[in-house]
């Protein structure tokens, strides 16, 4: 079947303009004529549709993503097949991939980075609770809309706990630059594997480049397994640097094991003000841990460090006027 602007799928989804082209398919801006709303339509390429493995992955993406309802996950509306062309109808996110933002800006300020990682972790927490591992978290699969609202997309290589594997033993799935060491070794994905990918994104966002580069995808995967993570610059806040270091542990048991655990860590970070540099301690320095309030409600430590302001910290971690921060239940975050 020939796909072009004006093509109608399923009797209701009219394709308007091409948004993106990937290895397996194309993503079109479209219109749902029955509900009169814009949609994104992912169409499997003709060659991929003829490949049974690709087709099963496409169906898995529809099944896995359709079962996840959260503000930080791009919603899937429908799935169909017309004249041998499989298509997936999704929420249209008016934004741009994080990869485009990083290409343009090189680095992000720490508060913005934490905000983006926090929202991504919230979406992953819901997916993991449902038994779905994304397995391909990378900047290109994080759509950033107005106000830095994040939507996770492309569950094309995701795997639910109740699905049989579509790969041979030892086969690697995912994008090499963001691949957890255990996945590079052909081991099963866990929540900690998606958490590792967030560590790579965080490293890239504060340094301006990824920690591991090489001539081929295989060499990059080997580097994830064997090479030490390069040191972060001294301009990175100590708390954030320590968290990134833990996210990139080779052993998944040494990382925050779940997205929920990562959310808790992010909520308690002390960040350095943009443009400040670390200062050497002096005799007049305040005692370790002493803090003072700022005009925006944040808590600032001597030397320029600051805890996360209320505008960034999720509500459940904001200080209560009469007691300690609120606790967090397994399903309360992001709701």
Characteristics of this structure?
Kinase-like_dom_sf, 3-stranded antiparallel sheet, globular, 6-stranded antiparallel sheet, 335 residues, single chain, 9 helices, Ser/Thr_kinase_AS, disordered C terminus, ATP-binding, Phosphorylase Kinase, domain 1, Transferase(Phosphotransferase), domain 1
Q: Summary?
A:
Keywords: ATP-binding, Kinase, Nucleotide-binding, Serine/threonine-protein kinase, Transferase. This protein has helices at residues 46-49, 52-66, 98-105, 110-129, 181-184, 191-207, 217-226, 238-247, 259-267; strands spanning 8-9, 13-21, 25-32, 37-44, 76-82, 85-91, 95-97, 132-133, 142-145, 150-152, 159-160, 270-272, 291-293, 299-301, 305-307.
């Amino acid at each position: 079947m020939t796909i072009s602007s004006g093509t109608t799928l399923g009797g209701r989804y009219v394709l308007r303009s091409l948004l993106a082209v990937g290895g397996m398919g194309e993503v079109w801006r479209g219109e749902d004529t029955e509900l009169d709303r814009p949609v994104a339509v992912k169409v499997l390429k003709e060659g991929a549709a003829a490949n049974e493995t690709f087709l099963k992955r496409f169906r898995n993406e529809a099944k896995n993503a359709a079962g996840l309802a959260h503000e930080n996950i791009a919603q899937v509306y429908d799935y169909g097949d017309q004249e041998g062309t499989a298509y997936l109808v999704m929420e249209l996110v008016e934004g741009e991939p994080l990869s485009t933002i990083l290409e343009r800006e090189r680095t992000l300020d720490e508060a913005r980075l934490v905000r983006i990682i926090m929202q991504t972790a919230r979406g992953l927490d819901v997916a993991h609770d449902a038994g779905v591992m994304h397995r391909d978290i990378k900047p290109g699969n994080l759509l950033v809309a107005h106000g830095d609202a994040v939507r996770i997309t492309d569950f094309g290589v995701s795997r639910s706990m109740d699905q049989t594997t579509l790969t041979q033993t030892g086969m690697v799935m995912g994008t090499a630059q963001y691949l957890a060491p255990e996945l590079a070794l052909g081991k099963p994905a866990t929540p900690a594997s998606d958490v590792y990918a967030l560590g790579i994104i965080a490293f890239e966002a504060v340094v301006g480049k990824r920690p591991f580069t090489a001539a081929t995808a295989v060499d990059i995967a080997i580097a994830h397994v064997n090479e030490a993570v390069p040191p972060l610059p001294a301009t990175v806040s100590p708390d954030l640097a320590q968290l990134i270091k833990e996210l990139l542990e080779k052993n998944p048991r040494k990382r925050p094991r779940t997205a929920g655990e990562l959310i808790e860590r992010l909520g308690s970070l002390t960040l350095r003000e943009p443009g400040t540099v670390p200062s050497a301690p002096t005799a007049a320095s305040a005692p370790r841990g002493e803090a003072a309030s700022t005009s925006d409600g944040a808590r600032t430590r001597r030397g320029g460090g600051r805890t996360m302001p209320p505008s960034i910290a999720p509500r459940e971690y904001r200080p209560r006027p009469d007691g300690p921060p609120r606790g967090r239940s397994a399903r309360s975050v992001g709701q």
